[in-house]
């Protein structure tokens, strides 16, 4: 049985960290799996007995400290690979990828196979991606679009598509474990989920919802994710929708909250492969998403959800300023919510599409790549 080392910055919330943890559990019957992290504090994901090794190299402030930290991580990772006699080292995200490739090609000439997980457009930094294309054995891209961009722009033949997987049965079962506590007892709920991050475009979300709520006063907005959301709470108040918006915070089991929704609305201006979108679809939520560079278009595949135009990247918390794209998206959401037949149609398609991202196919591809 081959020895597989998965490498992530941490296991504390986040999409790539979640995929790392799920990969560890899924591959246990087929590989001897271990996980290496730079910081083991606040582990949020259950890895079901997979050994987690803390390299004790958390993030540090300052340019010089960051450079030294990269070398420290690579050195410790190299020693770990040798000690554990690793056959394949598979990293998730840019910081882990950099340590992995440095450990695999600069600290030793003959190390284990080096696999790098390319998670988003932001991973395609010119200097780093050239390094990755030259020295990595595999670049595993979470979307076909990312793979094509690497092939076309960098003439790299080592890129492969490996989309995230989802245990649909488990998601649906966990949605029934508890009853989500919300401040309202009625109304149609629009849901979005993700950490407080400018790339999520949550100011767009609130402005769009304000227009939807004006037309359909029984609508509510539920935002699930880690963060204080101070500026967004103020914007909600300025828009006059504070009583119709719930900031539910980080939930270890978000599925009972997602299940409360009628519609999932994603307003990110970039994504890699948005896990939360597929998880919502698995629970039967009709889905509307911005046509950002990667992710939603590939998931919807022309028919499984509704794409709306991508929107402005610069945050705008002025409640009096509503962009044309926000108005257009609001009109489409309003039309969808008013059409019960179309809502039911997209609800059925959501569940159907979510089932395409199976664990079995993910495992098959990794076993094939491992040789």
Largest sheet: 7 strands, parallel
How would you classify the helix and strand content by structural class? alpha/beta
Q: Give the CATH architecture of the largest domain.
A: 3-Layer(aba) Sandwich
> For the residues shown, what is the average pLDDT?
93
| Broad CATH class of the largest domain | Alpha Beta
CA(first)-CA(last) distance: 12 Å
Shape: globular
**What is the beta-strand fraction?**
15-25%
Number of DSSP helical runs: 14
Strand order of the largest sheet: 3-2-1-4-5-6-7
**Please, what is the CATH homologous superfamily of the largest domain?**
Glycogen Phosphorylase B
Gyration radius (Cα, Å) is 21 Å
CATH topology of the largest domain: Rossmann fold
- Total separate domains: 2
Write the layout of secondary structure elements.
Elements (H helix, E strand, L loop, with lengths): L2 E6 L6 H13 L4 E6 L14 E3 L8 H22 L3 E5 L1 H12 L7 E6 L7 H10 L2 E4 L2 H11 L4 E3 L6 H7 L13 E6 L8 H14 L3 E6 L5 H9 L6 E5 L5 H5 L3 E4 L8 H8 L3 E5 L5 H5 L5 E3 L15 H15 L1 H15 L4 H12 L1
Parallel strand pairs: 1-2, 1-4, 2-3, 4-5, 5-6, 6-7, 8-9, 8-11, 9-10, 11-12, 12-13
């Amino acid at each position: 049985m081959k020895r597989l080392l998965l490498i992530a910055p941490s296991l504390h919330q986040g999409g790539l960290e979640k995929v790392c943890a799920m990969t560890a559990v899924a591959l246990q019957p087929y590989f001897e799996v271990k996980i290496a992290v730079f910081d083991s504090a606040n582990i949020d994901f259950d890895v079901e007995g997979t050994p987690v090794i803390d390299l004790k190299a958390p993030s540090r402030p300052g340019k010089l400290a960051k450079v030294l930290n990269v070398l420290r991580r690579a050195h410790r990772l190299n020693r770990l690979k040798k000690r554990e006699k690793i056959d394949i080292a598979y990293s998730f995200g840019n910081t882990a990828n950099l340590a992995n490739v440095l450990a695999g090609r600069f600290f030793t000439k003959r190390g284990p196979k080096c696999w790098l997980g390319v998670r988003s457009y932001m991973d395609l930094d010119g200097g780093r991606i050239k390094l990755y294309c030259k020295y990595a054995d595999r670049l595993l891209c979470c979307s076909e679009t990312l793979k094509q961009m690497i092939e076309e722009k960098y003439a790299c033949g080592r890129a492969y598509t490996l989309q995230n997987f989802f245990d649909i049965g488990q998601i649906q079962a966990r949605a029934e474990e508890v009853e989500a506590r919300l401040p309202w007892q009625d109304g149609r709920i629009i849901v979005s989920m993700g950490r407080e991050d400018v790339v999520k475009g949550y100011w767009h979300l609130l402005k769009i919802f304000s227009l939807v709520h004006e037309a359909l006063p029984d609508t509510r907005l539920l935002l699930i994710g880690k963060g204080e959301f101070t500026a967004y709470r103020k914007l909600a108040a300025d828009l006059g929708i504070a009583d119709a918006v719930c900031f539910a915070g980080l939930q270890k089991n978000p599925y009972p909250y997602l299940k409360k929704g009628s519609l999932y609305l994603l307003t990110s201006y970039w994504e890699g492969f948005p896990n939360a979108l597929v998880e919502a679809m698995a629970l039967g939520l009709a889905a509307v998403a911005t046509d950002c560079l990667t992710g939603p278009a590939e998931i919807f595949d022309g028919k499984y959800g509704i794409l709306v135009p991508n929107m402005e990247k610069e945050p705008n918390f002025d409640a009096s300023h509503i962009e044309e794209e926000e108005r257009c998206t609001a009109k489409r959401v309003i039309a969808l919510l008013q059409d019960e037949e179309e809502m039911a149609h997209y609800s059925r398609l959501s569940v159907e599409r979510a089932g395409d991202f199976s664990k079995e196919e993910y495992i098959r591809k990794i076993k094939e790549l491992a040789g």
